Amino acid sequence: MTTEMIDFPASRGTCPFAPPAAVAQLRRDTPVRRITLWDGSQAWLVTRRADVRALLRDNRFSSATHHDGFPWVNEGLKAQSADDPQPFIRLDGTDHARLRNTLLADFTPRRAETLRPRIQEVVDDCVDRMIQHGPPGDLLAEVALPLPSLIICEMLGVDYADREFFQNRSALLTQTDCDSGQLQRALEDLVGYLSRLAERKRLAPDDSIVSRLAADDELRDAEVAVTSMFLLIAGHETTANQITMSMLALLRHPDQLAALRAQQALINGAVEELLRYTSIVHSGAPRVATEDVTVGGELIGAGEGVLCVLDTANHDEHAFVAPEQLDITRTGRSHVAFGFGVHQCLGQSLARVELQVAIETLLQRLPGLRLNVPFEDLRFKEDGAVYGVHELPVAW
After folding, report:
1. Residue closest to 396 by CA, chosen among 138, 129, 136, 140
2. What is the enclosing helix (H) or strand (E) of 42?
3. Does pTM top 0.90 for this prediction?
4. CA-based Rg of the chain, rounded to a whole angstrom?
5. pLDDT (tens digit per residue) in 233-262
């Protein structure tokens, strides 16, 4: 079968909200297409929403990295596959369920709602500081990153004063162009930090997640550290980028921004549309077929790697009317911004509340909010597994 070399993850080009043109073209022409990756290995790209959803809920596709055909998108990330244990998103079946189930109660919709007053307090404090020092400001550094970082630190029992340490290493671990040495050092730093924290929690227990995990006799010490690390990274890195990309999308669509400011009741639906429209997961959801499976009319053989491309799925014209348009009145949660199936994002309810509170508060309290640099001068994270901006300069 003919394959082609494409850059994946690829640059989004002039529109940071649209999927990469080359990958979007695959969705229109050959939505299930075999490609050659950076290391000469081959994998399938699945780009249409219906196929992505079907594949991600099919237990014949594995998330486990020990399979030879697992489709790593760069050398650095591949190097991590040798580490043991893996985070629970890279496990299947009972192994996945055993770890995920220890955390379910912490990330339910009800639990997220109980945190709404605290989230509001944190956002208000961030905006107060922005207003106090006056414009211009960096929305990423001053609101979007502190909010989820502080909340996940409080949930885990991590000292927020250590944020520079873990934010720097988290950023490295989500880049797609770091070499294996950099990634390994960042990984060892974080695992060591969280191992020491877990040991302190055993000696002085509290009601934090790390304390509870550390007290669980069924979890190995390494599992406690890696699970805590995954929550720490996912709990702040993704939401920070989603807040900034959502606000940038609204600033680039003043009609939608005005409509949301005028009708605050639209906020929940607006957040779903912003999740779909911006689709910040930039490197796809990797899987390996454990047996022969037909997807979208193509036979994917046992042992072959697959990359489910979430941004093209969320811009699929077969699933969404005028998907290239931002429409905050669009109804439904049919996007796959949080993935799909048993590995769907554990923290999605918390992320939704953080997005709702952050966006609504910024629109209410900073009515003159605007970009403080030309749009063309913004620097986007083309080298990251999570898409976003390096900074979002604003005035008001």
Report:
1. 136
2. strand 42-46
3. yes
4. 21
5. 988 889 999 999 999 999 999 999 999 999
